[in-house]
Specification:
By secondary structure, the protein is of the alpha+beta class. Helix content is 41%, strand content 14%. The protein is built from 24 helices and 17 strands. A hairpin with a 4-residue loop joins strand 4 and strand 5. Helix 1 crosses helix 10 and helix 4 packs antiparallel against helix 5. The two termini are 67 Å apart.
Length: 640
Amino acid sequence: MSWLLNLYETYQANLDYVGEIKRTYNDREYTLLPVSHTTQNAHIEVTVTEDGEFHSAVVIAKDDMSTLIPCTEESASRAGSKVAPYPLHDKLSYVAGDFVAYGGKIKKEEPYGAYIRNLEAWANSPHACTKVKSIYSYLSKRTLIRDLVQEKVLFLDAEGRLIEKWDKKGEELHGEKPKLFSLIAGEQESAFIRFNVRPHSGVTESVWRDAEVYDSFVNFYSQQLGIEDYCYVSGEFVPSTERHANKIRHAADKAKLISANDTSGFTFRGRFTNSTDAASISYEVSQKAHNALKWLINRQAKVIDQRVFLVWGNQDLDVPDPMDDFFNLDSEVESTNPSTSYTNEEFAREVAKALGGYRNKLGERENTNVNIMVLDSATTGRMAVLYYRNMDKNLYLDKLIEWHSTCVWLHRYRKNAKGEFVISPGAPSTKDIAFAAYGPNGSDKVIKGLMERILPCIVDGREIPEDIVRSAIYRASNPVSMEKWEWEKTLSITCALINKKEKCDMALETENTDRSYLFGRLLAIADVMERKALDADEKRSTNAIRYMNSFSRYPERTWGIIQSALQPHQARLGSKVTYYSSLIDEVASKFTSETFNNTALTGKYLLGFYSQRHELYKGKDKGKETSQSSDNTDTMDTSN
């Protein structure tokens, strides 16, 4: 129950945001819902006067359909033909007293009768406000459909009944297709109606955004809650509930996190007589926890193929996301000087410094914990918590520092605020790791699975799964199968994954005698040497790049092929070749007769390749190229 308790505490700590409308990055409205409220997409807005008379009606634009409405336990979970009216705003078949008169069909109980009785009880209660009384006064007259037809919002057929679907007969009677039929999927009776009240003078808040209306219903409905029981979350003896919220990820989401409505079959398997024997949760805690979760998902969660990745603090909502790269965590990061080579220890200090601001901010409050949650649903009706951690803020930041200091490499694929590519050291984001392992065309299903598997590596310190690393190494060793930008990005991310285990410096390790690392250095020298010999406008891949995959499997044999292909380019370089030849000699001298063989290389060769290539392109040794003697220009043959 810890995740429910932390969500409940988050709601309590953010009461000032209740009912405050915000917009997501894609311009969708969201808010921290009041207790006993939910959201619905409304199609028609009906305005009445304070005296309870009809004023006007319009079809709502698509970008303004989201409506905050009061709801009861029964209406929040209604399905099929069950009659369970919402307290105020609802479908046409519920709110129109003249629904039957215009051809509406009733299966069992009349929806309007149940709706108007509930609304009457609210309007006549001591908690009722003026707007609710005005709406009740109008609807009790049973003239809604008549008024909507006169306003040309609803349309009738030749027999005076509501048109079921728009067809040629409708065009003959009414001409152009009405706007309403473009918004609703079914018949006109399925249109959702929201109500507003026009004051005699001045301007008031819309009913669905009015805090007075929220409070009115919360106070009214709190007097009608069910049997009191012990709440397993709050530890209090208060009214409990067996019906819990849906619409967690979006307005059309039917999956529930808590559900025990199936009393047949093997639901309890003889262990319990009813659902409350397993756990009892109070209505208030359930409402506030679920509403906080909906709000947080809209506000800051990452959602991939309906899987939710959410990180938040109970007191301070905005905490560093473990799935981001260091570039996102440090908003002040700029391009690393190409002539500067970070060691892992130096970069660890940079990471600690960058995250120090978060540590100081979170330290201003006591008992500030960080919550990490992953949610997904296997079916349309059931949702599960796939991963959950509640951690002390300092422990959480220490884990982030460790991750960004060990799974680290130099990356060139990020852009700064000016839109320029920058060289940024650090750990890649989990989404970029998926890019390296599965490519840009990896399905969302695969990507979300990888992100879930990487998360414990960051938060719990587990090893990165070997299949992910192998897949990234395989792709990085096949540069000819992808565009240059894609390969460069894949290469640096793969180096970070390998380095999490190998713990090499990002700077070139000239004393490293690991055979894979040394072979990687040789490949980089060959690549840069040939690239220097080519014309500036020559875009083709070098022989080192073309043979990279074969080189990783059969290094000794393939190195001989690459050396042979290098000879024409060595001739074009002239005296400059001496520098590269001596460098190859230097690297080759570190092999022993046992290590220079055809055994397949480990992923560590990519570290040697990247570091050596970066060192050569920095340009600090340019002077050496021309200062070397032009004698002994032949490259040492290490293929034998």
